[in-house]
Amino acid sequence: MVRESDIRVTDGIKIVFFDVDGTLMHEQKIPDSAKRAVDLLKQRGILPVLATGRSEYEMAAIREALDIDWAITCNGAHIGFRGETVFATPFPREMLVEWLERASVHQHSFLLYGAEQMFISTSAECRYFQQARHEIGFRDPLLYQSVDEVPEIYQCIAFLDEGQERLYTDRFEDEVFLHRWRPWALDLNPRGVNKSVGISTLLDHLGFAPHQAAAFGDGLNDREMLQFVGRGIAMGNGHPDLLAIAPFQTKHAGEDGILYGVENIVLASR
């Protein structure tokens, strides 16, 4: 847990980034205490921002429920203001075409994240997709028909095991950033993109410095952002490898961890 002596003096936190699943949300719901924490930040003039591996499309209801304007989605590849694209790093079209052709041959399922919709390359009855939906929830994707019908894509989730990922990454190893979050599920983003990159872009846009930012997260895709901001805070339920490197730690997401972290770390003066 946080020690007061661990908090370095800054000229004040101006902006706070929240991962969603396992952080701002617990068991697919936003705890009332997390809502109070976001309201407390706004009362103090501190800007709350979502920073998630999910798509802008999936975050609309959460943004509206919490009255949050900005969202960094697709692990940093898309930044939206009230749902409208402001900055984005999409995949090259030819890369998507090759992946989807191979996925069809090997009967692997890909989830494609656009800003306003998401697509699945096979039936949504894919057992790994259904398992992910059970664990963290997904909105219904459209069935992929043709690459010509698909908008710009900022992130893919490939439902396959580690031994199969080289089918898709070998030829593009210098162009893709990988994050495996389940033995059977892999995030793919354009190379050079992660949450800290999206945060840096938004901080520059808004005129804030990294030491004026705090961030909450629980997964390995939160590693870069927790190390980048002034106060990087891991949830008590976070991945052990994240807890090992996070500058600060709060309570479990289901035990008012967001509110505790806001009150005792973000708003602490020392």
UniProtKB/TrEMBL annotation:
One of its GO terms (molecular function) is magnesium ion binding. PROSITE patterns: COF_2 (PS01229). Signal peptide: none annotated. It comes from the Bacteria. GO terms for cellular component: cytosol. This is Cof subfamily protein (Haloacid dehalogenase superfamily)/HAD superfamily hydrolase (TIGR01484 family). The lineage of its organism: Bacteria, Bacillati, Bacillota, Bacilli, Bacillales.
